[in-house]
Amino acid sequence: MSSAQPVHSVLFDNGQDTNQYYGQQQTNAAATATAGTDGLQFYSSSYGDQYSSTPGANYYSSPPTGDMRSSNYDYTSGAPGSFWSAFGTGGFADEPPLLEELGLNFGHIKTKSLAVLNPFRTVPHTIMDDTDLAGPLLFIFLFGTFLLLSRKAHFGYIYGVGVLGVVSIYLILNLMSENGIDWSRTASVLGYCLLPMVMLSGFSVVLKLDNIIGSILTVISILWCTYSSSGMFTSVLHLNEQRLLVAYPVGLFYACFALMTFF
Predict the structure, then answer these.
(1) What span, in angstroms and rounded, lies between the C-alpha atoms of 132 and 49?
(2) C-alpha distances in Å from residue 231, one per residue of 82, 94, 245, 246
(3) Where does the chain show beta strands of DSSP type E?
(4) pLDDT tens-digit profile of 193-208?
(5) What's the Cα-to-Cα distance from 89 to each of 58, 95, 105, 193, rounded to whole Å?
(6) What string of DSSP letters covers 71-91?
(7) Binning pLDDT at 50, 70 and 90, where does residue 90 land?
(8) Tens digits of per-residue pLDDT, 100-154?
(9) Most exposed of 50, 163, 164, 201 (fewest Cβ within 10 Å)?
(10) Strands, DSSP E only, in 130-257?
(11) CB neighbour burial string for 193-231, b if at least 16 within 10 angstroms, e if fewer
């Protein structure tokens, strides 16, 4: 039977006292005091905040400064590349604005809306090069909201008449013109020219339209929408001699919206 072999400690030699080993570590008073009581040794770090060059500064406390879109922007610096840069209004170089990426251009919406409100001025043929649908969707939403405020819930009719009218006028215009037009431009023109009808629906919230004044306002709104939209279609498609033929189906389209508002 083999004799018992002495077991050596992994951390300390058998002949070395544990307290003597810890007594040699005099670099930190707090660590020595803790080692003497609990038998534990703590490592004291002298590293500061690696994200800040100023002692005591917090990485998350100061918002970034500088324009990330500039060509000489330093992406390796601490302050501009900090946590707050994710919530900043800047961006990378040559990055388009967020509204442009979403297809929202308030300048174009304002220009087209003013062209509808002043239908007697000459409409440029490039007005519909930017076929945005943000303005039409906004006007349709306002139209339905005003009708709802006047106790007329016609959202289903608005959707049905709008889709059927856009498809019908799209087919008619492509049969009449040689160049043709896409459905997005058709929907954009019809939606922007709905603005007078939106104004009529806003009037219906504060006054009744089932009288002579309401009838006159309804007829004026139909003619206004028809004149504006036919002018845009003929300018884009170069159909100046066929404006009456274009205005007839467009007028029927806006008359359906006028009936929703009047009754």
Answers:
(1) 49
(2) 53, 38, 12, 9
(3) none
(4) 999 999 999 999 998 8
(5) 22, 12, 17, 34
(6) TT--TTSTTTTSGGGGGSS--
(7) low
(8) 666 677 778 888 888 898 878 877 777 777 778 889 999 999 999 999 999 998 9
(9) 50
(10) none
(11) bbbbbbbbbbbbeeeebeeeebeebbeebbebbbbbbbb
* Amino acid identity at 152: K
Tell me, what's the pLDDT at 67? 58
Residues shown for the chain: 263
CA 125 to CA 232: how far, in whole Å?
8
Whole-angstrom CA distances from 67 to 58, 70, 86 are 21, 6, 13
Q: How many CA atoms lie within 13 A of 227 on its CB side?
A: 15
**Cβ atoms within 10 Å, residue 175:** 8
